[in-house]
Amino acid sequence: MLFILFVLFLFSLVFLVVLYKRNSELSDYNTYLRSILHASVRASFVADANDKIVYINLSMLQILGEKEEEMLQKVWYEEIAPNEEKAKFRNLSYKKDESRLSINITEPNAKVRPYELSYTKIGSYTLYELQDISCYEEQKLKFTELEKELEHLKKSLKEQEVNFKKTFDMAINGIAILNGEGEATYTNKSLQTMLDYNESYLQQLGLKPLFSDSESFPTLLKIVKTEQNIQRLPHHFKNRSGISMDVSISMSYLEELDQYLVIIQDVTKELEYTKKLEKQKESYARRADMDVLTPCFSRSYLDILLNNLCEAKKEFTYIMFDIDHFKSVNDTYGHMVGDEVLIKVVEVIKNGLRAGDTLARYGGEEFAIVLEKTSREEALKIAEKLRKLVESTDFSPVKNLTCSFGISNNSLLLTCKNIIECADTALYEAKTNGRNRVEVYEKKS
């Protein structure tokens, strides 16, 4: 009796060990499976025989905008499927007939997106995976529309070949129909003119005159036939007369007819116009840098230049000057003469500056000069030279025209704002001390 009890004890012990090991293996397997599903980009979840969620991965939670603890042990279709689709999933027999179903899911942003729901039975559990098919639906719609257009075109080619040729001969774009070997069965007048070949020549050559090498054309035919249609492919070539042309090539393969439809649009003038617009944009950008009246830079350009120089810690000297008693010029001779004086003063100053020096109109009759890599001593000589040039120039009918100049402090020690203030202060000193003179900013103690 004791022996029997001992045997039963040993048997129970072995059974428990095997059971523990089996449970441990299952636990490890479940952990491994969960880690794979968790890392998967595809939205996935696992449901038991009662359709309750026992595991859901991060990608699926992101689609639903929910947390894992909120979804576990809930019937999956009650949480995921729209109300009008819930009945479809309540009937468990669908699992026997199909492995893929369509389902619409309302995402956190309230947008309804179509998905394909695929499922796989794993024992008493079911693994569900979602695939976003919205982009496929859009592509399918586009392809459907294209197929409809091609179908209509094929019928037109069969039923109204004569009318087709007449219509296409009136088209501005070059049009060709090629057979399966790439030989031209039809070319319209525009294409013949474009390539500078008559119809009989093009029937033999096809579209080979478009390409400078022997491989491009066969490769293009192969791509269109086996892979996809081509839409507005840019291409540059020279026709038989040596005229350079830019075109866009669109090609479709008509499978039922074993033919290629080719549309070639001459975009030479279009590209020329685009280039012209780009040049105009560049011209407008340059104009924005120039003063609207005088032949010197604008205030906005001056501000950008000063900021760049200050940020780069470049050495320069800043001079401000204006025309003495300019208001009396406008009052006495009128604004048109005043404008002419401003233009001529700028021309005189520019002639006295060095290459690389910058002259800009600060506002009204006030101007600024930026002298890069120039000390105050050198700037003083230049300003004095400019003052004398203005004083000795005939500005008829205006007489005795002079300018006053103010020179800033060292640019390396100041901000842009301080540099302008220094020059402005020095200019004010020049005005106060009798005008027609140059003053250098000196810090008051």
Q: Estimate percent helicity.
A: 40-55%
Distance between termini?
Answer: 119 Å
Main sheet, how many strands, which sense, barrel? 5 strands, antiparallel
What structural class should be given to the helix and strand makeup? alpha+beta
CATH topology of the largest domain: Alpha-Beta Plaits
In the sheet with the most strands, the strands line up as: 2-1-5-4-3
Count of spatially separate domains:
3
Mean pLDDT: 81
| CATH class term of the largest domain | Alpha Beta
Structure, explained:
This protein folds into three domains: about 20-130, PAS domain (Beta-Lactamase); about 140-270, PAS domain (Beta-Lactamase), CATH 3.30.450; about 290-440, 2-Layer Sandwich (Alpha-Beta Plaits), CATH 3.30.70. The chain has a five-stranded antiparallel β-sheet with strand order 2-1-5-4-3, sandwiched between helices. It is flat and about 125 Å long. It contains 17 helices and 15 strands. The chain has about 450 residues and is of the alpha+beta class.
Keywords:
445 residues, alpha+beta, Beta-Lactamase, Alpha-Beta Plaits, 3 domains, five-stranded antiparallel sheet, 15 strands, 23% strand, flat
